[in-house]
Automatic annotation (TrEMBL):
Domain Tr-type G: 12-280
Entry keyword set: Cytoplasm, GTP-binding, Nucleotide-binding, Protein biosynthesis
Regions annotated as coiled coil: none
Name assigned to this protein: Peptide chain release factor 3
Subcellular location(s) per record: Cytoplasm
Organism: Paenibacillus septentrionalis
Positions annotated to bind GTP: D89, T90, P91, G92, H93, N143, K144, L145, D146
Major subcellular location class: cytoplasm
Family according to the record: Belongs to the TRAFAC class translation factor GTPase superfamily. Classic translation factor GTPase family. PrfC subfamily.
């Protein structure tokens, strides 16, 4: 087999996705179940271990521990039904940060997990919006169906109202909460019945359609009547399944199930793997790059610092975009023009770091980083390729930073410059007061910043929280800074772009209305 045929085969098999959810929706549980289908039982424990650590107080040792553990489960890989599946972990809770968003750029699709009782929640909205901007397909799993919750039609309505996405149910619950007795699979034309206190699947039967008498025998009259009237309504008023729209992220297929009871998980996985895209062409400065070309390329989307305090080593996470990776290969570090040897690549399975010998587009590898990588760096073999998959995301939490000991000014500046370049924090400068303002999307980023300033640069910094909630990059050829004084604070980012900071949505809307020709961008231009 030629190299390009081999790469094509491997790309066809791969599905790389992230699960997006609000904390407690059941992401850990679902991940665990998915891994079990792949036979990767050993992993289940490690996913749990991470969870157990979540509520720990966040002094540095704890951050370290949390981060250390989250690293081991940053990427989970398993084989199932002829596919090689990569699940990317998207940190939530206290470790929600810009990394969470960046990780989504490395995924080819997303699974949006929703608690049937709670519906669409805050963190889901944020993560959804990032997926939306990237135009990746989004699959929805409505979880905890064994509990009382919102009705399926109400949830579809909520997806449309809150997220602005139409949905198409792939299956439909028969009964709900304690009365739940199964689902009707609209695609396969079958009924999956389950019973008992743990609701596990006990029977699967093929049916002609939803009027098939088999359903009545299995579910009884009352629930069957309800099911038929729901499905009739869906046939008339619901969106038809449209593959192109799913691929474009405009229509989300919905699956109903219960992760903890392992109900509906396998059908979800089967359907998902059929519908989810394989790794596609990634955008570079010189145009899209075909993943099946035989030249290796990829980009760094996350850097994990200080995993091992004794060695201060870092791991740079690289998403492979094209070609074949081989351990020990030499590639060009495009930003600095140097050729480097990739000799210590790691994959992150369970508590062990396995050494990877070969990997293909869609896979994520961890590279030992002696301090040479920055977030967004591209590596390539053959001609230079620069990927621009990584936008700068709009921060949501802000603080003014100051130094405790003025004599350390030089070290302080160096630290800020380097940590900004690494993507630990974003920095802004106010024009009028000479203030340095830091922006992050998760509180943990501040803690990491403070710790690293102390540990690596010997500088104690103070952070003074600010009340801004939104940042928008201002694009306007004839900007009049005075216009932004009333509703916002105008600052500059490190590339000298104007950024307006707002305390609330109302102030932001007002500024937008008053400046109709100005562009307010959510990501840096
Ligand atoms: P995460 O924060 O999203 O990772 O959520 P977890 O997977 O830790 O789940 C949060 C809680 O919901 C745990 O107590 C789970 O046992 C529970 N849970 C998860 N899936 C289900 C489900 O299908 N039904 C019910 N009743 N509880 C569930």
């Amino acid at each position: 087999m030629s190299l390009s045929e081999e790469i094509k085969q491997e790309v066809d098999k791969r599905r790389t996705f992230a699960i997006i959810a609000h904390p407690d929706a059941g992401k850990t549980t679902l991940t665990e179940k998915l891994l079990l289908f792949g036979g990767a039982i050993r992993l289940a424990g490690s996913v749990k271990a991470r969870k157990a650590n979540r509520h720990a107080t966040s002094d540095w040792m704890e951050i370290e521990k949390q981060r250390g553990i989250s690293v081991t489960s940053s990427v989970m890989q398993f084989d199932y039904a002829g596919h090689r599946v990569n699940i990317l972990d998207t940190p939530g809770h206290q470790d929600f940060s810009e990394d969470t968003y960046r990780t989504l750029t490395a995924a080819d699709s997303a699974v949006m997990l929703i608690d049937v009782a709670k519906g669409v929640e805050a963190q889901t909205i944020k993560l959804f919006q990032v997926c939306r901007q990237r135009g990746i397909p989004i699959f929805t799993f409505i979880n905890k169906l064994d509990r009382e919750g919102k009705g399926p039609f109400d949830l579809m309505e909520e997806l449309e109202q809150v997220l602005g996405i139409r949905s198409v149910p792939m299956n439909w619950p028969i009964g709900s909460g304690r009365e739940l007795c199964g689902v009707y699979d609209r695609m396969k034309g079958q009924v999956e019945l389950f019973q008992g206190k743990d609701h596990t699947t006990i029977e699967v039967k093929k049916v002609e359609d939803y009027n098939d008498p088999i359903i009545r025998e299995m579910a009884g009259d009352y629930l069957t009547d309800q099911l038929i009237s729901d499905l009739e309504l869906l046939d008339v008023a619901g969106d038809p399944f449209d593959y192109e729209k799913v691929r474009a992220g405009e229509l989300t297929p919905i699956f109903f199930g219960s992760a903890v009871n392992n109900f509906g998980v396998q059908t979800f996985l089967d359907n998902f793997l059929q519908l989810a895209p394989k790794p596609g062409a990634k955008v570079s400065e010189s145009g899209p790059v075909d993943p099946t070309t035989d030249k290796f390329s990829g980009y760094v989307f996350k850097i994990q610092a200080n995993m091992n305090p004794a060695h201060r080593d870092r791991i740079a996470f690289l998403r492979i975009c094209s070609g074949r990776f081989e351990r020990g290969m030499s590639v060009k570090h495009v930003r600095n023009g140097k050729t480097i040897k990739l000799s210590q690549p790691q994959q992150f399975l369970a508590q062990d770091r396995d050494i990877v010998d070969v990997a293909y587009p869609g896979d994520i590898i961890g590279l030992f980083d002696p301090g040479i990588f920055r977030i967004g760096d591209s590596l390539s073999q053959g001609k230079d390729i620069v990927y621009n998959e990584l936008p700068t995301f709009s921060p949501e939490i802000f603080a003014k930073v100051s130094i405790k000991n003025a004599l350390k000014q030089k070290q302080y500046q160096k630290g800020i410059d380097q940590l900004t370049e690494e993507g630990t924090i974003q920095v802004f400068y106010s024009a009028s007061f000479n203030d340095t303002i830091l922006g992050v999307v998760g509180q943990l980023q501040f803690e990491v910043f403070q710790y690293r300033m102390q540990a690596e640069y010997g500088v104690d910094v103070q952070l003074h929280p600010m009340t801004f909630q939104f940042a928008r990059w201002i694009v306007d050829d004839n900007i009049d800074p005075s216009k932004f004084r009333i509703n916002s604070t105008l600052v500059k980012d490190k590339k000298d772009n104007y950024v307006a900071l707002f305390e609330n949505e109302y102030a932001m809307r007002t500024a937008m209305e008053k400046n109709p020709t100005t562009k307010f961008l959510e990501v840096a231009p």
